[in-house]
Structures are given as C-alpha cells and as structure tokens.
Design a protein that fits this description.
alpha/beta; Rossmann fold; seven-stranded mixed β-sheet; globular
Length: 246
C-alpha cells in the first residue's frame, strides 16, 4: 500500500525526471552558485588538505565538475537517486572525471569515514527527514561537512521570521507546519518541485556534536548588523562543520 511518503518521493522524482534537461538553468539562482560561497569552500578544502569529496544529491554533476576543475588534485564522487539526472550528467560530460552512483542520501553506499569531506547543495529542503541525510553525511566524512541550504528563519517579513523562530523554539513549528500544508508537510512549486520547510539550524546540534568548529556563512540577503545574522537575515546559509585534528 502506497504511503504518503512514497507518494511524495514519487512526485519529487517525477519532477526532476521531467526537468532534467533544464535543471541547471532552472536552479542557477541558488546560493551554491554564488562565486564567493564557492571560494570559501575551496579555501577550507585547501586549508584542511582535503583529498576526497563526496557530493550528495549531485543532480547533473555540474557543481561536482566545477569543484574538480578548480582543484584537480581532488577525488570527487557524487550520489544521485534520479536516473534522468544521472543520464544528463553523462550527456553533459560531467562524469568524465567524477563518477556518480545511483543512491539516496539516507543510505550512502560507503564505509565510515570514506571521504575527507562530504557536501550537499540545496537538497536537504527536499528531504522528508533531512537529519537522516545529515547523519549519513557525518558517518562517511572524516574532516569536513559542507551544507549549503535554506534557512526558513531568514525568509519572509521581519514579523514572519520572528514568529517562525518563536514557534520553533516552543516546539510548535511541526504542528503549525502540518496545518498550513493541509497535513502533507510539503509544498509544490513550479520552480522547485516538492519541498519541505527546512533551516540549516535544524541540523546545527548534530553538526556541532561531530565537529570541532562550525562556521556559518550567509549565502543570500541581509547584512551583518546584529548577532542575529545570519539566523534572521539570510534565506540560505553555508554551514562548514570541521574536524580540525582529524
């Protein structure tokens, strides 16, 4: 019997199958394409002397290929569950030096600490249980985790941001989100397909327990004028969780 989660996964994968050939142009606006964000990630990779990187939810592999082009000495590998996106990656030549495996972020087919670094760019807000993916990323990472994704607390009007934060802190956000989505827990939009309400701060405690240092870098919107930056000012955030002595 098909469950609500099965139906959500089917909707999501059909969307990416239908848009695979247009994926890169459709998602060119996302924070991971910001040149300054890319430079931060590259600098940390060099600083930690990282030699291998896994890209979770690599889609067409464009970001994976760009990382390899910038740092040719790296071994870069990706995982992607949608066959049409992997086929587009092959067609575009993005797998010529960076292999892609068909797999989900919730069940990475690698041993513990297999990669120096593991990254994801804008896929966690499509996962029904994003922290299940984060736990797998932490399991297979040795030195660093890079998460570049949405931050619900930095989106909407000032009042809406404060209300969302208050609901989350009072543990009422789940019930509110259930009601506002009609019990589905997700929304569907033309430009992003099926997505869930997510903030990188939802995963902060997991990352902080694993890492020696966590660095938060705003990807979009707002200026650092208070200690609430980027929590209440940036709609997406790059989180760098680092094990400095690994």
């Amino acid at each position: 019997m098909e469950t609500r989660l099965d139906r959500a996964v089917e909707i999501q994968r059909r969307y990416y199958t239908d848009t695979a050939t247009r994926y890169d142009s459709m998602h060119a606006h996302e924070g991971a394409t910001d040149a300054s964000i890319t430079k931060f990630a590259h600098a940390i990779i060099r600083m930690l002397e990282i030699r291998s990187v896994l890209d979770v939810g690599t889609a067409t592999g464009r970001g994976m290929r760009e990382l390899k082009d910038a740092l040719p000495e790296l071994f870069v590998c990706g995982v992607e569950p949608v066959a049409a996106l992997v086929e587009e990656a092959v067609r575009s030549g993005n797998t010529s030096s960076c292999p892609i495996l068909r797999a989900t972020g919730e069940a990475l087919p690698f041993l513990d600490a297999s990669f120096d670094a593991v990254c994801e760019f804008s896929i966690l807000h499509h996962a029904p249980d994003p922290n299940a993916v984060v736990k797998e990323m932490l399991r297979v990472a040795k030195k660093a985790i890079f998460i570049c994704d949405s931050n619900r607390f930095g989106q909407g009007s000032v009042g809406a941001r404060l209300i969302k934060l208050a609901l989350y802190k009072s543990k009422l956000w789940g019930a509110y989100n259930y009601l506002r989505t009609g019990g589905k827990g997700y929304r569907i939009t033309e430009g992003d397909g099926l997505s869930y309400s997510y903030s990188v701060y939802d995963s902060f405690d997991l990352l902080a327990r694993w890492a020696d240092r966590v660095i938060l870098i705003p990807c979009a919107g707002g200026k650092g004028t208070s200690w609430l930056h980027p929590l209440l000012t940036s709609g997406s955030v790059l989180v760098c969780a680092l094990k400095e002595w690994a």
